Amino acid sequence: MVQLHKWSSYFHADGHETMNFLPSTALSSSSSSRFLFLRTTLLSHSLLLHHFRTCLAAEKVPGTPMEKLSKGLDEIDQSGEACSKEARDFRAKKRIADEIIPHILNLYGSCATPHDFEIYAPDASFEDPLMRAQGVKQIKSAFYSLSKVFSESKIVQYRIEENLVTPGKQEILIDNKQHYKFLGKDIDLISLIKLNVVDGKVVRHEDWWDKKPLWNRETVKVPLFGRVIEMTRRCSMLATHALMRFGKDPSV
């Protein structure tokens, strides 16, 4: 006969464990082995539980695995917030292009209204190989004149690329194909429209025919020749501005 003691564990509200031994009992030799195996198994489980509670209690100790895990979760949260902010910025950026492009299509389609020119800042500029406009009224004259020269004008194909320059500043590139009809003759033109946008308003609008940079004092080899070209564009714009009654909106 082998004298053995049974034991039990109690988990208290504060998380610690108390082991209580029960009165001894006499066991037969045949059942002692099974009881020893059972006791060993239960003791192993108790030690594992005790180790687990120790780890939980140490979660606030600097350098412990639990603190590292908590820190990692915080970093994940911060990363998620950063991604969310980038996603919001991206959606805001796309909305700027979505708001501007319909007005650009109206301008080139000879169906512009005063509302379409609200995309420009008051001191915005427009330039293509023929004229150079400064201010919204001159830009109005430039586009209102299209219907006076061409019986048909429109952008038939386009692809948009938008780049964030700095916070609040974007560059919108419109790779497009323009169609005009002059004296019954169809004219197709490949163009690159460049829009510089600040705080949602266009401050610079360039139209590069055949996707070639505009000639000016900075892009030609002879600066004097570039100045002559710039003056020619300005004179063309002033003449057009006068003919279009200085940017007066057409009566509805």
TrEMBL record:
SUPFAM superfamilies, per the entry: NTF2-like (SSF54427)
Q: Which InterPro entries match?
A: NTF2-like_dom_sf
Question: What is the protein's name according to its record?
Answer: Nuclear transport factor 2 (NTF2) family protein
